[in-house]
Amino acid sequence: MQGRTFYYLIVYTLILLLISIMSGCKKDPADYPVGSNAYVNTWILDSLRRYYFWNESLPKKPDLNQHPTVFFKSLLNAADRFSYMVDPQDPASYPPSNWNKFGFDYATVRTDDSNLIFGIIKYVYNDSPASRSGLKRGDYISRINGERLTISNAGRLQNELSTSGEGRLTIATWEGDALKDLRTVDLIAGVILEQSVKQHIFQLDTKKIGYLYLNDFSPGLAQSVIPNFNLFKNETIDALIIDIRYNPGGQVAEAAGVTALISGLAYNTPFITYTGNKNGGRKTESIGHSASSDHSMQYGQLLEASLGLKQLYLLVTGTTASAAELLINNLKPYVNVITIGETTRGKDQASFVIKDMRQTKTISWELHPIIYKLSNARGEGDYSTGIVPQHHVNELEYLPLKELGAADDPLVQRVFTLIQDGISTRMRKDDPKIAIDDIHVLTDSRQMQTAYDLLQTRN
């Protein structure tokens, strides 16, 4: 949709080899006219009764005459933040996002006195409408579509921007203790291409520190970063930083593949456990099996490029979710994982797509319900409230934002401090014009989207 594919964290279980998931339910809801709300809703209900993690909480006799989207939402458990449904024939049914339309993410914040409200662009995709319009990480937004940002309108303006095919931003700078409007930028939605990883090697006294930024865990990611790990290996790095601060997830195969590149774990090493309802049961999968489900690579290729690390630094924020959180949690039994940043999104669950795959399709909707809870080889999971980092650093308190992976980025600096105290430059808040000792995030465009970067099974 809109030129950008949603990437999902893939789950795998033997039950999928035999189930009628491709037809979506046990029987055709023939008691109702094809295409009617009751027809579609019967299919939805039958599917959830079989696969939904919270199937025991489903109502006995729901109203089948509601619109399918309303009906679906009415069935969801109160603890479910992530299940959703879409109609591929209707682009409007997909979740809105700035990055998907324009190629950038931003947060709206206020300072401690509550009077200064502004947006901060956190990430701009290469060769996107945003980058071609001159937007860059660290730019300040004072107005959206001509309206100055306030506490009361920040959420509405973000939603309007993400649901429209065009928008206008006013970019500002600091003058004294206030924002001064500089220019307006007109955006038109366009195609967002896949993003390359960012790689650096820092020299910290006598130590070499590798840095790798991963934007997501899209198909083929692990295969694509093998050359990056080979470079780290050839340079004999002493420590590795993986930056997943804006990574909303992707496929479990890619998370497993990156885990293998980091750790060098043997093929049969336990990696992930899926726990479903009474129908789904419980299944543990090895790292080799998980990684090899991406048929673009052989597990042996990953081991050849592996660094065999026993310690890893991960940079995280509230946007870090799904497969990215899986990387954190499922590395822990084997690697000393040190997290720096902010509490992650908290998505310890998995889904697969349920759709009508009959030769003569009568239902166009696709369901993405939560099916499993996830845990690592030690049975550790339950991070639905997020993974709290060992070292808290809020990058928005150190303005202006530095380039991702720059030596003066506050998250990278904290790693330097941890590696060798006294060698790194002391972290400082660079702009004394802004009262940023206590900054509050009002909205975050990426977190609005993260709920839809769900876990999906292989076909």
Structure overview:
One of its GO terms (cellular component) is outer membrane-bounded periplasmic space. Residues 180-394 form the Tail specific protease domain. With 459 residues, this protein is of the alpha+beta class. It folds into 3 domains: 32-80 and 349-372, no CATH class; 98-192, Pdz3 Domain; 198-347 and 383-428, 2-enoyl-CoA Hydratase, Chain A, domain 1 (Alpha-Beta Complex), CATH 3.90.226. It has 13 helices and 20 strands. The protein has helices spanning 37-51, 68-75, 98-101, 129-132, 154-163, 221-224, 226-234, 252-263, 287-292, 299-305, 323-331, 410-419, 445-450, and strands at 84-86, 104-110, 117-124, 140-144, 147-148, 166-175, 178-188, 198-204, 207-213, 239-243, 270-275, 282-286, 311-316, 336-341, 349-351, 354-355, 366-368, 370-375, 391-392, 440-444. The strands form 4 sheets. Strands 2, 3, 4, 5, 6, 7 and 20 form a 7-stranded antiparallel beta sheet that branches. Strands 8-9-10-13-14-19 form a 6-stranded mixed beta sheet, covered by helices on one side. Strands 12-11-18-15 form a 4-stranded antiparallel beta sheet. Helix 1 runs parallel beside helix 2 (68-75), helix 8 runs parallel beside helix 10 (299-305) and helix 8 (252-263) packs parallel to helix 11. It starts with 36 loop residues before the first helix and ends in a 9-residue tail after the last helix.
